[in-house]
Predict the 3D structure of the following.
Amino acid sequence: MPDSPGTDLAETIRAEAERLAPRLIELRRDIHAHPELSFEEVRTAELVARELERMGIERRTGVGRTGVLGTIAGGRPGPAIAIRADMDALPIQEKTGLAYASRSEGKMHACGHDIHTATLLGVGGVLKALAPRLAGTVKLVFQPAEEIAGGAKAMIEEGVLDSPRVEMALGFHNMPEIPVGRFGYVRGSSLAAVDFFEVEVRGQSGHAAYPHQAVDPIVAAATLVTQMQTVVAREVSPFQPAVVTVGAIQGGMAHNIIPDSVLLKGTVRTLEPAVRDQVEAALGRLCEGVSTAMRVKAELHYHRFVPPVVSDDALLDRAIASIRRQLGEVVAETQPVMGGEDFALFSNAVPSAHLRIGSGAPGRADMLHNSDYQPAEACIALGVQAIARIAADILA
């Protein structure tokens, strides 16, 4: 249940979030109109730094190349908590027709990172106002390059979790599948480990009319693609999610030539470490088998990109309770998804909680990474209330 009428903290947070809301929407629309791709977030970082300065929040720029770190010191000693938002856009041509649509050809905030950045600025404004009553430190982590999973690593390597040492972290993502005003969470792994692979299938080129004189890598590659689908269907338990997808096949230039080689590119998504190991081993075994059976050399190059995002149960319980105290019965358990997120590197380093903020606009059925994505902007102020209340309760 939400705090009863007259409860100081709930009313203070609600009033401050509502006061900030028009400015946050203005900032969000500015960021949306000027999207920047991974590690190109120069203008966005400058906007964030100016806004933090206006709020009187200590800031450091150029962290992890284009990241910004804001720091709020509480009135008493206590733990340090990091709250992270991502800032980068996607290489998508926007088709919304909005007045504040992207002005940059081929770039769009189609994942809602503009929403995230505005929300974290609002959280900073609320927590700055509450700073005298907080016991500890808040680190506002404005992260670049989530879409290429490089920004979290860069910021962590440059000490974003140090001085003072962060003891816990909060992450969040807008979700159009959840109606605005509602929140979601997942226990354990909420987003998948992201791995990429390439398989170079080398044969021997020759005339297409005389295939017996060549070693055909195209047929071998096609066989391998089909066999890869059996890893999930016939090797991994149906109770343990896994995805193996081949997204690109490159090989051959002409109708009548068998090429020397074919390149396969794909991704693996898993929620459990044991399944991750199992799938990688299975792909290696299949490559060896095709090599032997079809006289080719199928060489697997497997790259582990980011681990799963895992929420700590104890911290998640505290976060859920805080949201309910602030906003009522608006939060519910949801299902994991097989997309990935480099917030995983934070959740690997310290106990973390990752929350889903409903951004679904009434009458729409939006999707992330879509050229017509139009989240409900009311999710910004609601997200500010939820995240600020979690941090305030933790640092009470």
